[in-house]
Amino acid sequence: MRWFLVLFAVCAFTASAADISGNWKATAEGPNGSMERTFVFKVEGNKVTGETTSSVMGKSTITDRKVEGDTVTFTITGRFGDNEMKLDYKGKISSSGNEIKFTVDAGGNTIEWNAKRAS
Length: 119
Known about the structure:
Strand order of the largest sheet: 4-3-2-1-9-8-7-6-5
Helix content: 10-25%
CATH class: Mainly Beta
Order of helices and strands: HEEEEEEEEE
Largest sheet: 9 strands, antiparallel
Strand content: over 45%
CATH topology: Lipocalin
Structural class: mainly beta
């Protein structure tokens, strides 16, 4: 009985992670105007893998990633010219599961991205 309760608790925790698998398009306002970024997420349990692409930084792999409930966190390493910069993303998934509001720590500046599931 005890193992059953432990197994049930683990399954319930895993099932509570939102499924954000698929393609997403995001926009943000930066110092030089509007920016766009795409995300491709794959979720297995509470682990997220994938990549993201922007016109400013090109393609980046998503690392240090997880989904817990309605929160997703991950890191990407972007390039600005010859400089690499780690960007830490934290997102709140909407109750519909079709929008994510991200905040990103970009070298001491905070950028807010609004992502929508692409059709």
